[in-house]
Fold this protein.
Amino acid sequence: MAVALPASPAGGLGRAPAAARLAEDLDRLGAMDAASLRRRWRMVFGRAAPEQLPRALLQRALAYRIQADALGDLDRETIRMLDRLARDGRDGAVIPLPELRATKPGTLLVREWEGVLQRVMVLEQGFAWNGQTFDSLSKVARAITGANWNGPRFFGLRETRAAGKASAVTEGGRP
């Protein structure tokens, strides 16, 4: 997909960083009316947009495709899993959660408990919390709450999530 570049003061094409061009392209989507979005859809996808698709979904689908083209799309494993989930979901079947991957050293587990954000670093041998090292997540959860908890469940790493917000964040700050 081609993205129009602004003209530079010298009259040539400006070479804004790719991220800035992408942001501008996405901003333009937000300002488009439904007819303009449908024209853009035809340019991006090579066919007419589904008639029943509302403006908000046109914008979201276009934004996704534009970002995927610029930054890279989902990996094959994720696409296969999503396709399988879509097929299984049509039948009304209960969709199992994917197998949990072991947390890697360097992963930061974050959980809010009683209004305080708790951060636990996964180590090669155990877990670090508040300057102490624990050999299991359950012991960390017990130290935080004063009660017996399934540690992986407390930090949202198991099927049934505990009350409150939990997430895993990698070293770089991305889930």
Observations:
- The mean pLDDT is 79.
- Residues 108-169 form one domain.
- Helices lie at 18-31, 34-45, 55-71, 76-90, 137-145, 151-154.
